[in-house]
Each structure stands twice: as C-alpha cells, then as structure tokens.
Amino acid sequence: METAKLDDFDRAILRELQRDGRAPVAEIAERVGLSPSPVARRLRMLEASGVIAGYTAQVDEGALGRGFSVFVSVKLDRQVDEALAKFEAAVAAFPEVVDCWLMTGARDYLLRIATAGLPEFEAFLVGRLTRAPGVASIESSIPLRRVKGGAAGLSCR
Amino acid sequence: METAKLDDFDRAILRELQRDGRAPVAEIAERVGLSPSPVARRLRMLEASGVIAGYTAQVDEGALGRGFSVFVSVKLDRQVDEALAKFEAAVAAFPEVVDCWLMTGARDYLLRIATAGLPEFEAFLVGRLTRAPGVASIESSIPLRRVKGGAAGLSCR
DNA sequence: GCTGAAACTCATACGGC
DNA sequence: GCCGTATGAGTTTCAGC
Q1: Where is the HTH asnC-type domain (chains A, B) (predicted)?
Q2: Which residues 38 to 97 of B reach strand D, CB within 7 A?
Q3: What angle do CA A144, A150, A152 make, to 5 degrees?
C-alpha cells in the first residue's frame, strides 16, 4: 500500500464522510461538485489505499452502560519488549479500555477507561487492571465532561 | 428525548454498526437473526433517540497531515464559568485539537493535539494555544504509539 | 412486533466525450 | 479523468399474521 497523494476533491469527500459516514454517493457528489461516478471511484481508491480505515456508528457511551470515563496512567515494572507486549495484549482484551497510548516520559501508558460508574470503575481497577502483567503503579484522573472529540476532526469546522 | 431501554437485538445491531457503519440493513438483519424490516425500524428509533449520534468514516490521521499527536494538559488562571466557556470556544475552533476533556484535580483540561509533526506542533503551541483566553500554564506529553482505540469499542472483542 | 412482497432509491458498470 | 445512462442491489413502505 502506497500513501496516495490526495487532491482537493479527495479531501472534500473525506470531510463529507467524516461528517456523515452513511451519506449516499449522489449527495457527496453534489456537495463536492462532481457527478456520482468519479466519487464512487475515488471512494474505492481511498478505501483500498487505507486512507479510509473503515466506517463506524457513533454510539452514545451512556446508552451502552459506559457513560463514566476515567483517565489512567500506568507504569510497568520493566520496559523491555516482552513486558510491553504482554501488557498490551491484556489491555486489548479489556472492553473497558477504549483508548490506550504508549507514552514517553515518566509514565508508560495513558488509558481511558469507560464504565457505567465509579463503583464499576473501582471493580475494574482493583480486580483486573492492577493484576494485568507487569503493572507497577497506577494514577487515576477523573474528567468532569468531554468538551470536544468523539470523532476525529468532526467539529473541525 | 428519553433514554430508551435497549434489548439484545438493539445491542447486536449497535455492535454491527460499530464494526461497519455502512453495513446494509439486510446484512445486519442476517447477523442478528431478524428480517430487514424490523432492523430498519429499530435503526430509525436508535437514531431518533440519540443512541446513535451519527456515522463517520475512520480516516487515517496521517493521510490528512495529522499523523503526529501530543497530549497537552492546560491550567487556566481562573476557573469561573466565563473563563471556561471562553477557553472552550477557542478550543472548538482549533482543528488541531481532536479531543478535549474538562478535568478534576490539578490540571484543568486534557487535550490531544494532532499535527503533521513536531515543528507544526511547536507552531501551534506557541502561536495559538498559549494565546487562547485564560491559559496560565501548559504541559506536553508525547506518545510513541497508539496501542488501542480510534473508534469507541471497536477492538472490544 | 415480525414477516414477506412491492415500489422506490441508490450504487455499480459501461459507452461516449 | 469526468459525464450520463442502464442494470442490479439495497432500502422503505404496507398489507397480513
């Protein structure tokens, strides 16, 4: 897969699809100023090249019993490859972990945990996350409210 | 809008749509064990009640020139309503800010900034973010790699 | 509330420019 | 590489259970 060069039409199509991932080709075509055929062809190109990784419904986290988020930074007891791989495998298997980044600096990982509420978060923290392989210490930060985000670049204009 | 109660079929439909937001109704119907008609009706209900906030294409951040992320925590000089509102309005207008949370604790906001690279991040930081209304101090943390996430709950099983 | 069929909209392929 | 048309797939509506 090669990183294809995108022209203004491609970027316009991507913007429309970020705004509405189920938008019909005909509607996208009208908004970007093209007929449906080239839009469909560009779409297949964007999907095949990996620029569009997929499509997803933005489901309200509260409706799925995951309306309460906590940011957790994790430090491992060792930072060798195998230790990272084991911890990451554990994280991948926890549905409560909705986001996870390997960091530079004092903390090794930054995670966002989504559960139904504080009691459920506590149960996950002490029952599962602290027992994940290699975990040395954990710090939790509780957000009050999401100001922006959810879909990458959704509110960009 | 009332928080509707969801049954197992609704949750199955939501799971399918998180996995593939453009999945045809007929395909969803087959996977959840229903005929297309009730799936279409439930879908409209889920959209109308806000359980499905929308649909979006998962666009590769690198392809849009935003492949480099930095986490930034921000402290304001005051925490009264008007100060928060002004800062949040500024944040909403910055396309580089892809995620923003109002936090409890020592720092007021946690942001994820996405730019093309470190020089572009520096330009955004000193030229725009530090000049946003009310900003007192900023701390940056640079991630090495995203381990999990992107679409809420995508890797949940 | 689900099923199945009919009407309609939308997506894909092809010929022409 | 785009436009316009034709064909087939997918969506939506409605009668019946």
Answers
A1: 6-67
A2: 40-41, 43
A3: 135
Helices B36-48, B25-32: axis angle to 10 degrees equals 100
Predicted pLDDT at B5: 81
From the list B53, B103, B152, the residue facing A98 with the nearest CB is B152
Owner of token pair 């779409």: A43
Helix B8-19 to helix B36-48 angle, to the nearest 10 degrees?
80
| pLDDT tens-place string over residues B77-121 | 999 999 999 999 999 999 999 999 999 998 899 999 999 999 999
Written as six digits, the tokens of A105 are 């600096």
Q: A75 exposed, middle or buried (CB, 10 Å; 0-12, 13-18, 19+)? A: middle
Protein CB footprint (7 Å) on chain D nucleotides: 1-5, 9-14
Q: Does the structure show a pLDDT above 60 at A143?
A: yes
Per the domain annotation, does A156 fall within a domain?
no
Same structural domain for residues B44 and B68? no
Report the domain count for chain A: 2
Question: What pLDDT, on the 0 to 100 scale, is given for residue B151?
Answer: 58
Query: Considering only CA atoms, which of B69, B121, B57, B120 is closest in space to residue A10?
Result: B57
Distance between the alpha carbon (CA) of A23 and the C1' atom of C15, Å:
28
Checking if the pLDDT of B1 tops 80, the result is no
Domain extent at residue B19? 8-48
Specify the CATH number for the domain of residue A14: 1.10.10.10
CATH, residue A110: 3.30.70.920
Average pLDDT, chain A: 92
Cβ separation A58–B52 shorter than 8 A: yes
Residues 94-153 of B with CB under 8 A from A: 95, 97-105, 107, 109-110, 112, 114, 141-153
Of residues B109, B112, B108, B132, the one with CA closest to residue B121: B112
